[in-house]
Design goal:
Helix content: 25-40%
Structural class: alpha/beta
Strand content: 5-15%
Order of helices and strands: EEEHHHEHEHEHEHEHEHHEHEHHEHHEHH
CATH topology of the domain at 97-123 and 231-410: Rossmann fold
Number of helices: 17
Distance between the termini: 61 Å
Largest sheet: 6 strands, mixed
Shape: globular
């Protein structure tokens, strides 16, 4: 345990504080969102920056509970209020950095990396936040709080993570999904893990309104990213990234954004390390949005002076098809603090970028395709220097979006020409015809 470390909920507006085991999502005084606030002075006094780095390095890969997790290996920075015995973890995190050597070479880059957050138990970065939230729920139940279930609205990945972690903990979960707007793999995950699955005839924003009403009954706990416990787990990506580069900070980080909890988490992780002296420089954070669901991009064009929710259009990047993001204020603050850039990608741009990168060994979800398409734009436009160390955050595993992959290569996605499609060759079982076809294909690939 880390009894000497302390954290509370703190309002981002008026600064009011609440205990982490209180069932609360917005400030009772001003109705603003809350964030988890750590006692940085206590953390600074406990260890030097080099000692914190050494401690975190010593925990990577260990089987000592719960420190083998990429999230709980930073327990003091994440959620010290949870007793180690009450942690609900699948040793998430510690995901690999993929050196995108061939894709980078296409852009003239030598230091391009993809953080493979989809290489996780449920196939997305949402596991990083859900382990913290469900662990805190488990802690609260052990302290005598009456919580009957945990609920979320989702475009797929959040519901999968919630269902899996609640199943592991033995806590009922409820997920609200927009009907016919998520992939089959995303739908079947919470079903398989025993969640109560509610498919609503609306979009994500409509599901979010319903779940907020349902969770006003405090016996059902809200698991969406407006609950800042989720952000605490996701901010471990920042620490893990620099740890993987021997505590050197990359120049640019590109992350796809929908409800915008992810970019606020990324910024929070870097801010905390800066304040504790663990790192000494800031990266530039780039937020990538689908053109069909781009309210933050529209705000960025106006210098963030105003923000207007929108009704999002259908996008292949379904997990970020969100027009009224809950964490917009936190996201804007993070971007303003980290030299932020917001860029968008069309449906064809994201699909082609994902497919082209796949040809170099990846297998990208459409949301990573948005980030890769934005990378291409910013490098070609001279915004990101070719010699910059650049990280693309891959948020989910491509296997969760097999319909997207099949549709691209079969050329059946409306409005997408599939310029990198790779269809199977249909041939008779004739050796000579197979040789002829192979010779033709190999010659074409050498050209």
């Amino acid at each position: 345990m880390s009894e000497r470390y302390h954290a509370v909920f703190k309002c981002i507006g008026c600064g009011e504080t609440y205990p982490l085991d209180e069932i609360i999502y917005r400030c009772r005084k001003c109705n603003e969102l809350l964030e988890v606030h750590h006692d940085l002075e206590m953390l600074r006094d406990a260890r030097s920056a080099s000692d914190w780095r050494a401690l975190f390095d010593s925990r990577v890969g260990t089987t000592q509970w719960p420190y083998g997790s990429g999230v709980w290996g930073k327990k003091e920075f994440v959620c010290p209020e949870v007793d180690g015995e009450n942690v609900i973890s699948m040793f998430e995190g510690n995901t690999n950095l993929f050196w995108a050597k061939r894709f980078g070479e296409m852009l003239g880059m030598k230091d391009l990396w993809v953080k493979m957050c989809g290489n996780s138990h449920t196939g997305s970065f949402k596991d990083l936040g859900m382990t913290v939230l469900v662990s805190m729920v488990n802690e609260m139940i052990r302290r005598g709080k009456k919580i009957d279930a945990v609920a979320c609205a989702s475009t797929g990945d959040t519901s999968a993570a919630l269902a899996a972690y609640c199943a592991y903990a033995g806590i009922p979960s409820i997920v609200f999904l927009p009907a016919n707007k998520i992939s089959t793999a995303q739908l079947v995950q919470p079903m398989a893990n025993g969640a109560i699955v509610l498919s609503l005839d609306t979009n994500f924003d409509g599901c979010m309104k319903v779940v907020q009403e349902i969770t006003k009954d405090n016996t059902i706990y809200l698991a969406n990213s407006m609950n800042s416990l989720r952000v605490e787990g996701q901010k471990s990506i920042s620490v893990e990234l620099v740890q993987q580069f021997n505590w050197e900070v990359p120049d640019y980080i590109i992350i796809p954004g929908g409800n915008l909890g992810n970019v606020s988490a990324l910024g929070k992780g870097f801010s905390m390390m800066l304040e504790l002296g663990i790192i000494s420089k800031k990266p530039t954070i780039v937020l990538a949005q689908a053109q069909n669901a781009n309210p933050l991009y529209q705000s960025y064009l106006k210098g963030f002076k105003e923000f207007a929710p929108m009704v999002p259009q259908k996008t292949l990047a379904s997990a970020i098809q969100i027009g009224d993001p809950v964490s917009v204020r936190k996201a804007i603050a993070a971007l303003q603090s980290f030299n932020g850039i917001v860029e968008q990608a069309s449906e064809e741009e994201l699909a082609d970028a994902a497919a082209l990168a796949d040809r170099t060994g990846m297998f990208n979800c459409p949301h990573t395709g948005v980030a890769l398409a934005v990378l291409v734009k910013l490098v070609k436009g001279g915004v990101i220097p070719k010699d910059a160390r650049t990280i693309v955050i891959s948020t989910a595993h491509g296997l969760k979006f097999s319909e997207f992959k099949v549709g691209y290569h079969e050329g059946t996605i409306p409005g997408v020409s599939s310029r990198y499609a790779n269809k199977p060759l249909l041939l008779p079982p004739d050796t000579d015809k197979v040789r002829e076809a192979l010779a033709k294909e190999l010659a074409a690939r050498k050209a």
